[in-house]
Design brief:
Layout (H helix, E strand, L loop, with lengths): L2 E5 L5 E5 L6 H7 L4 H11 L2 E2 H8 L4 H13 L3 E6 L5 E6 L1 H4 L2 H27 L7
Antiparallel strand pairs: 1-2, 3-5, 4-5
Pfam families: HxlR
Organism: Streptomyces silvisoli
Protein name: Helix-turn-helix domain-containing protein
């Protein structure tokens, strides 16, 4: 990893780590486990309640869903709306910032449609070669 220089308050120069991949912060925010499926559902299904999301996502635990929803709210990609009624109701909705990821998701769907058969074929060829599988 290379470094960038940054001046401190006293004027001295110190080396800052430099990330050679400018998309890493985006990948960290958007493509962590469960984040993309949550955003996808909210984008295509509209506002949803916690249990609706959990049912649609299938194997996600309540703890993991809670953590992901909090992180997405913190990142500004969804809004949590609490309705003070009995029983209490909370809705989750994608924000404009979250919707701005739509072109990226659309390109990824196109790439997946075009290339996942090739990836699966490469995986089969690798597996059939007898080489050790990655863990």
């Amino acid at each position: 990893m290379t470094s960038a220089r940054a001046a401190t308050a006293t004027g001295t120069i110190r080396q800052q780590p430099y990330d050679p991949c400018p998309v890493s912060p985006l990948v960290d925010v958007v493509f962590s486990r469960w984040t993309t499926p949550i955003l996808w559902l909210l984008q295509h299904q509209g506002p949803m309640r916690f249990n609706e999301l959990r049912e649609r996502l299938g194997t996600i635990t309540a703890k993991t869903l809670t953590e992901r929803l909090r992180q997405l709210e913190r990142d500004g990609l969804l809004i949590r709306t609490h309705h003070p009624q009995v029983p209490p109701r909370v809705d989750y909705e994608i924000t404009d910032l979250g919707l701005s990821l739509s072109p990226i998701f659309r390109l990824m769907v196109e790439w997946s449609d075009d290339n996942m058969p090739l990836v699966r074929r490469a995986q089969r060829q690798y597996d059939d070669s007898g080489r050790p599988r990655p863990s």
